[in-house]
Automatic annotation (TrEMBL):
Keyword ATP-binding attached: no
Protein name as catalogued: Chemotaxis protein
Location of the Response regulatory domain: 175-301
CheW-like domain ranges (all copies): 15-154
Source organism of this protein record: Metabacillus sediminis
């Protein structure tokens, strides 16, 4: 199944299309933007001493790609291969990966405000679920694929080492708003931005909460940029995605002067136009935190 990018929605609509897939009897979802294609399982070459969540590698159209054993990565029981098994070929964080799943059911079009944030009762910092949506009377869990990859290769995530080469700076008086749904990434962003000298950072779990905060700040007297200098947002978030957040900021006459940087695993050459269309000042692919900090310096000086 080739994922036709022509079906993607306009920027800023707060909608997404997700591919529903199975691991055992469990239903999960992945944003169709991350999916290059869905293929039948092929022969995989096992690599000695590789991470246990790596099933092996395979060649696909001249590229050698890692195949991730999704059931193992989620600590779920595996099952014997069946004809329903599929390989989901993905691209995010500037890399291509293949996820072995037990079946693909269908594509759903939903709005982000129908995707609920997981409860803290069953969702901790190290969990792999970023959202829950009810579809056809079944619960579908949105997976944090970036977390799966960082578990395998920690160097692929945000690291303070990327910041240290930028040198010391004094930015403690600069106020930044960040919208990021992943608890792991909020923690890493906080640490790396503090290392970069930005101590006044307000974090929100989704675009809706960030927008409400900004609108409340905008109601006060005086220029907005005396209180907030810049907004950083992820794209994929429950309730309100980053493209819609950016669009709402730029439509608000009191907020539109704020520069918005989109910091997301979905920043590719094919998708940059979506951020441009909603008015983003810049777009950076995770985990390039050093580029993000350099852009922050550029926009808040």
């Amino acid at each position: 199944m080739d994922m036709n990018k022509g079906i993607l929605l306009d920027s800023g609509t707060n909608e997404l299309e997700l591919v529903e897939f199975l691991i055992g009897e469990n239903r999960f979802g992945i944003n169709v933007i991350k999916v290059k294609e869905i293929i039948q399982p092929a022969e995989v070459t096992v690599v000695p001493h590789s991470h246990p969540n790596i099933a092996g590698i395979m060649e696909l159209r001249g590229e050698v790609l890692p195949v991730i054993h999704t059931a193992k990565a989620l600590n779920l029981p595996d099952q014997e291969p069946t004809r329903a098994d599929k390989f989901i070929v993905t691209e995010f964080n500037n890399q291509k990966l293949i996820f072995h799943v037990h079946g693909v059911t269908q594509i759903h079009r939903v709005t982000w405000d129908h995707i609920e944030k997981p409860s803290s009762m069953y969702q901790g910092l190290e969990a792999h679920v970023t959202g829950v949506v009810q579809l056809n009377e079944k619960m579908v869990l949105m997976l944090d694929f970036e977390k799966i990859v960082v578990d395998i290769d920690p160097s692929s995530g945000l690291t303070i080492d990327r910041i240290k080469k930028l040198g010391k700076r004094e930015r403690s008086g600069k106020k930044i708003v960040v919208a990021e749904d992943s608890p792991m990434l909020r923690k890493l962003l906080k640490e790396t931005l503090e290392e970069a000298g930005f101590s006044e950072v307000e974090f929100f779990e989704n675009g809706r909460d960030a927008l409400e905060f900004l609108e409340n700040m905008a109601s006060a007297d005086g220029p907005m940029r005396d209180r907030i200098q810049l907004v950083i947002t992820d794209i994929e978030m429950p309730q309100m995605d980053g493209h819609h957040l950016t669009k709402r900021i730029k439509e608000n006459t009191r907020l539109q002067e704020l520069p918005v940087i989109i910091f997301s695993s979905l920043i590719t050459n094919d998708l940059m136009h979506k951020g441009v269309k909603v008015g983003a000042a810049a777009q950076v692919s995770k985990p390039e935190i050093d580029k993000l900090v350099a852009l922050i310096d550029q926009f808040i000086l």
